Amino acid sequence: MTWWKCSNCGYLFEADTIPEKCPNCGEKCTFYDVTCYTPECGCQGYDPKLVARKDPRIL
Ligand SMILES: [Zn+2]
């Protein structure tokens, strides 16, 4: 499963694929992959550092 963040409302959710519309705001938003791929960090599945970024695409 992948964690996604809605670029419009910031909603976080877990899904295999990106939905057509955001489950929270209902808009056709861009979704950012905020999954944490570092098991050692002990986070809940998403990376808080990515979530905190306004645009996680810019690393
Ligand atoms: Zn949204």
TrEMBL record:
<protein>
    <recommendedName>
        <fullName>Rubredoxin-like domain-containing protein</fullName>
    </recommendedName>
</protein>
<feature type="domain" description="Rubredoxin-like">
    <location>
        <begin position="1"/>
        <end position="35"/>
    </location>
</feature>
<dbReference type="Pfam" id="PF21349">
    <property type="entry name" value="RUBY_RBDX"/>
</dbReference>
<dbReference type="GO" id="GO:0005506">
    <property type="term" value="F:iron ion binding"/>
</dbReference>
<dbReference type="InterPro" id="IPR024934">
    <property type="entry name" value="Rubredoxin-like_dom"/>
</dbReference>
<dbReference type="InterPro" id="IPR048574">
    <property type="entry name" value="RUBY_RBDX"/>
</dbReference>
